[in-house]
Amino acid sequence: MNRILLLSLLFIITLSSYAQGDFRIMFYNVENLFDTKDNPNTNDDAFLPEGTQRWSNYRYWEKLKAVSNVIDSVGNGYPPALVGMCEVENDSVLFDLCKRSPLRKHKYEYLISQSKDNRGINVALLYQRDEMKVLSTKEYTPVFDDSTKHTRNILHVTGLIVNRDTLDVFVCHFPSRNEGIKRTQPYRIIAAKLLRKQVDKVLAKRRNPNVIIMGDFNDYPDDVSMQHILEAQSLHKKKETNNLYNLFLHRIDDKNQGSYRYRGKWQYVDQFVVSGNLLKGRSKTQVKDFSAHIYKADFLLEEDVKYGGAKPFRTYSGYKYLGGTSDHLPIYMDLIIKE
Question: Is the distance from CB of 38 to CB of 44 less than 8 angstroms?
Answer without folding.
Answer: yes
